[in-house]
Automatic annotation (TrEMBL):
Positions of Fe cation binding: 129, 131, 185
Cofactor comment: Binds 1 Fe(2+) ion per subunit.
One GO BP annotation of this record: oxidative RNA demethylation
Organism: Morganella morganii (Proteus morganii)
Residues the entry annotates as binding 2-oxoglutarate: 118-120, 202-208
Protein name (Swiss-Prot/TrEMBL): DNA oxidative demethylase AlkB
Family annotation (Pfam families): 2OG-FeII_Oxy_2
Gene3D superfamilies: Alpha-ketoglutarate-dependent dioxygenase AlkB-like
EC number: 1.14.11.33
């Protein structure tokens, strides 16, 4: 698909948080093919929260560290607990695109060592939470959305702060840093549908500095 949106100005959605509409529109097929390849090595699985709930999004990771959750808590691990092997390396194209997105949003020198791969079937979502398992809070988180659209909600630094909602669509990138790095956020349940390239799924890649 031609790149109608990627040259737009980043849309400020919160202080130091930017939405890059359609940033991935030339790279969507490559990204989906890489997700397929990576998850043949480290398969999608439903993790347990420390409280014993099954997460509705299926997850995998690539990079030096992967995010894991189980009865012992949330953490980054150099090995995939499902396979016992290291996570597959972060593809060069993932690294480059995430760095270009960070740069476009005004964050220089972004060098992620972890990419969490989330897969949402219809009905799956993510309840309100903060991302605080990463030690260096000066580093942003860069998120890529592919496949089915979803309503994304974000609030403030405390759970009770009011929420704003907007759609995340195939090809969109979000960059969260600085003053919004610890904002609460949630993903509403994905509605049934079929995306022409991704099928009945939404995929989200989040690039992080785990160390
Ligand atoms: C706002 N993933 O994996 S990405 C997650 O669409 C997660 O799969 C969602 O939240 C998803 O933790 C949302 C957008 C996002 C990512 C990180 C953030 C928003 C954020 C960190 C701080 C504030
Ligand atoms: Fe999150």
């Amino acid at each position: 698909m031609s790149d109608l949106f990627a040259h737009d100005e980043p849309l400020a959605v919160a202080p130091d948080a930017y939405l890059l509409k359609g940033f991935l529109s030339d790279e969507d097929e490559m990204l989906l093919a890489e997700i397929r390849r990576l998850t043949a090595i480290s398969p999608f699985r439903h993790m347990q929260t420390p409280g014993g709930y099954r997460m509705s999004a299926a997850m995998s990771s690539c990079g030096t560290y992967g995010w894991v959750s189980d009865a012992k808590g949330y953490r980054y691990s150099p090995t995939d607990p499902l396979t016992g092997n290291p996570w597959p390396p972060l593809p060069d194209a993932f690294l480059l695109l995430s760095q270009q997105a960070a740069e476009r949003a005004g964050f220089h020198g972004f060098s992620p060592d972890s990419c969490l791969i989330n897969c949402y079937a219809p009905g799956a979502g993510m309840s309100l939470h903060q991302d605080k398992d990463e030690p260096d809070r000066r580093q942003p988180i860069v998120s890529f959305s592919l496949g089915l659209p979803v309503q994304f909600q974000f609030g403030g630094s405390e759970r009770h702060h009011p929420l704003k909602t907007f759609a995340l669509e195939h090809g969109d990138v979000l960059v969260w840093g600085g003053r919004s790095r610890l904002n609460y956020h949630a993903v509403r349940p994905v509605r049934a549908g079929v995306h022409p390239l991704a099928g009945a799924r939404r995929f989200n890649l989040t690039f992080r500095c785990a160390r």
